[in-house]
Amino acid sequence: MRNFEMPGRSIAVGRNGMAATSHPTATLTAIDILKAGGKAIDAAVGACAVQCVVEAGSTGIGGDCFALLASNGNDDVIAYNGSGRTPAAAHFEWYRDNGITSLERSSPHAVTVPGAVDAWARLVADHGRMPLSEILAPAIALARDGYGITPRVAADISNQRELLLRDSSTRRIFLADDQVPPVGSVQRQSELAQTLETIAALGRDGFYRGPVAEDMVARLNSLGGLHTLEDFASTAGEYVKPISATYRGWTVHECPPNGQGIIALMILRILERFERTGDPLDADNLHIEIEATRLAYAARDRWIADTSVSDVPVDFLLSDELADSLAAKINMNEVADTTAALDGVAHADTVYISVVDKDRNVASFINSIFHSYGSGLMAPNSGVLFHNRGQSFSLKQGHPNAIGPRKRPMHTIIPGLVTRHGKTVLSFGVMGGHYQAMGHAHVLSKLFDFGLDIQSAIDLPRLFPLPGTATVEAEARLRTSIGDNLEARGFKVVAPNWAIGGAQAIWIDDQHNVLLGGSDHRKDGCALGY
Length: 530
Description:
Layout: E1 12-14, E2 18-21, H1 24-35, H2 40-54, E3 64-70, E4 78-82, H3 92-97, H4 116-127, H5 132-145, E5 147-148, H6 151-159, H7 161-165, H8 168-174, E6 186-187, H9 190-202, H10 205-208, H11 210-222, H12 229-233, E7 238-240, E8 243-247, E9 250-254, H13 261-271, H14 283-303, H15 314-317, H16 320-328, E10 349-356, E11 362-370, E12 378-379, E13 384-385, E14 416-420, E15 423-431, H17 436-448, H18 454-459, E16 463-465, E17 471-474, H19 476-488, E18 492-494, E19 502-509, E20 514-519, E21 526-529
Parallel strand pairs: 17-18
Antiparallel strand pairs: 1-20, 2-10, 2-21, 3-4, 3-11, 4-7, 5-6, 8-9, 9-14, 10-11, 12-13, 14-15, 15-19, 16-17, 19-20
Helix pairs in contact: 1-2, 2-5, 5-9, 13-14, 13-16, 13-17
């Protein structure tokens, strides 16, 4: 039971429906949609659209999304890949011949065609109940009429001020006289409001064809981008077969590559080979998690790519043979040699949304522009802020994740679902770019190894080993309690640049027919049920 004398949050409890997001306005929007008769996916898309306005540093219509869905509480999980692709002209040789040896954050070459809007339209049409026009109405009103700046949003703007100053549109919209707007001040995004209205009226074609697409392509082309109107018009996500693994008797479901969900499963399979007892935050327990993460991420940086154009050995990566081999590399007294270096970038931003409706339809939904405020590039007439997901590509010839035409990059964003005995029991996600795979494993281990409830598991302090290194970012409480111990084992323990990740989760208690929600204090949001 929670200690009510300590700072923290209580689990949210509801019977008819629940939503957990990283922004209170988005959570309230999702609940309103559920109360109006919408299904879980209607509420998830509506909440996400709101966050594209009020939490623009974390997500936007210029980004990508993934989803896991389950109907009526059963364990028949559906996965959807809504990640966009490179332009058709993005041949590896073009970058080589033009002397491009790295993909910079604000380069047009870091912008893949956004997949989110296409995914929203498809998922709502296939699994929702409300028209897209009704679902997007709250976001449109906020963009047009204004919204108040919350503390985490103000902090994100502060961290990205120099980036936002470089583009005249982001400078005008997100800064106030070139300064960070104070908490409680009001922002408006009139161009984005008009674009959302166009999408509401015309569906995906309102974004991928016509004036909005023309504005996006013109902006990217003006910077040297290879994008064409045909690249946008031909954008299409796809349903994919989810991947899964059991952990302590629970089945954990993830989207398959090009996402890194498989790495969360690999970490769990390594952890399952160790006895996990005592204090979840003692040095030995966290040493095992750190090393399992470092070993699994080494495999990620070698193998994870777009399976439509690269051969990703999914069965091998989830095999007992590999899990046994990697677990055997963990020495409790020293740092393992992972023999891999990170081939990418270190941090990112995202929103994760979990919704369960009265019929126990479940939407585990994630939407991202990668870095905070993405590329920092905006299409001026449509107000679309572009992501920089293309930075995840490799520019090493022959690498499975090497950039190429009509190709999806390795993705860090991953929604999660847990099932048992034929029922979906948990919808969850952990934001935070590269941290997300470890975040999934960390939270689930705290639930299933140590018996914590979802809010307590989310509240625990976090750490993250930077891929390809022995450097471990650790929040203050862990630096104080076990930092010296980890340093003695060969790790370099440092403070993170900002709070690590941000989780949302909903537990479906079938025995009592209630929903239990948890939300991360590292973000502005909350879980609400009714």
